[in-house]
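User: Please fill in residues for this 104-position structure.
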C-alpha cells in the first residue's frame, strides 16, 4: 500500500477508489435512506464529500496526464471520462492506471 503514495499515479488510483466507494455508498445506502426511510442525513453529508473527491480525481487526472506526457487521444480522455461514468474509476484503474504504475 505504501507504493501507492510514492507516485502521482498511485495517488490518482487511491482517489479513484475513494470516488468509486463514495458513489457506491451514495447509490446503495444514502439514497435509499433518503427516499425510503425519509432520512437525508447521509446523502447531505456524503454528497459534497463525493463531489469534492470527484473534482480531485478530475484535476489530478489532468495533472498526471500532463506530467506523464499521456497522449490525450489514447489515455487522458479515457481516465477523465471514467469519473463521469458510474463506477468507471474502478474499471480505468484495472485497465490503465495499475499498468501505468507498474511501468513507472
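Assistant: Residues filled in for all 104 positions:
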Amino acid at each position: 500500500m505504501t507504493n501507492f503514495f510514492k507516485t502521482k499515479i498511485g495517488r490518482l488510483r487511491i482517489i479513484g477508489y475513494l470516488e468509486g466507494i463514495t458513489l457506491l455508498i451514495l447509490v446503495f445506502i444514502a439514497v435509499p435512506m433518503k427516499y425510503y426511510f425519509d432520512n437525508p442525513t447521509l446523502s447531505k453529508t456524503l454528497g459534497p464529500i463525493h463531489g469534492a473527491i470527484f473534482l480531485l480525481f478530475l484535476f489530478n487526472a489532468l495533472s498526471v496526464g500532463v506530467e506523464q506526457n499521456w497522449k490525450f487521444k489514447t489515455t487522458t480522455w479515457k481516465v477523465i471520462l471514467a469519473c463521469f461514468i458510474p463506477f468507471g474509476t474502478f474499471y480505468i484503474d484495472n485497465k490503465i492506471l495499475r499498468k501505468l504504475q507498474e511501468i513507472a
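For context: Residues 8-36 form the longest helix (29 residues).
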